[in-house]
Design goal:
The chain is α+β, with helices and mostly antiparallel strands. It has helices at 7-14, 18-24, 65-77, 96-99, 109-115, 119-128, 180-196, and strands at residues 29-30, 36-40, 43-48, 53-56, 87-88, 132-134, 139-146, 149-156, 165-171.
């Protein structure tokens, strides 16, 4: 069991009616053992409340453990609401300007370090992980993390005065689903995945 996920969260999930969870999170499926299957980014994970674990389904790659935390809370608190199709930063969320700093600063440097000042490498990286191009920044891509949770990654190429910069944006509906700490887990998971993906 991941140390990131308190056992109580699995117990809370086990106590929920599977039909109610499926109604709130329509992209999820559940088996007779109440193991939930959920597509996240370009993988599929199995969430087992009884075994207190999250693991990739056979044939799918594992995702960073912050996505495991995200997955459990998506089943606990996710809502069947449509994205508002309005991008906002973490600082635009209620309480976000205070929360997302210091130890909760989103580690977008992982992405910029990985693409090494190359717009083409950034584009290849995002396409490799299932991103769809957006007309923003010097380059930008949106990712359908789950059916109801889109995330955008923007990239600006640096120059002699300013380093290259990446930024995450969220759909305005994100705070209908999660508290700030789970939005942070989602953001870290995205940065870790794109920061660790190798581009040949």
């Amino acid at each position: 069991m991941s140390e990131l996920i308190d056992r109580g969260h699995y117990q809370n999930l086990a106590g929920l009616d599977a039909g109610e969870v499926s109604a709130r999170v329509p992209a999820v499926s559940v088996d007779q053992e109440q193991n939930y299957a959920l597509d996240i980014l370009d993988s599929r994970c199995l969430i087992s409340p009884k075994e207190c674990n999250v693991r990739p389904q056979d044939g799918f790659p594992p995702l960073h453990e912050y996505f495991n935390l995200f997955a459990v809370h998506y089943l606990l608190t996710g809502q069947n609401v449509e994205p508002k199709k309005e991008w906002i930063s973490e600082k635009d969320l209620p309480g976000g300007a205070t929360f997302f700093r210091g130890p909760h600063e989103i580690p977008t440097r992982l992405i910029t370090d990985n693409v090494a000042d190359s717009l083409e490498t950034f584009r290849k990286l995002c396409r490799k992980r299932g991103g769809s191009s957006l007309d923003m920044a010097d380059a930008a891509y949106s990712f359908q993390v789950t059916e109801k949770i889109p995330v955008a990654i923007l990239y600006w190429l640096g120059d002699e005065d300013f380093p290259s910069e990446a930024k995450l944006l969220f759909d305005r509906s994100i705070n209908s689903h999660f508290a700030l700490d789970i939005i942070y887990a989602l953001a870290v998971g995205m940065c870790m995945e794109l920061g660790n993906t190798r581009i040949e």
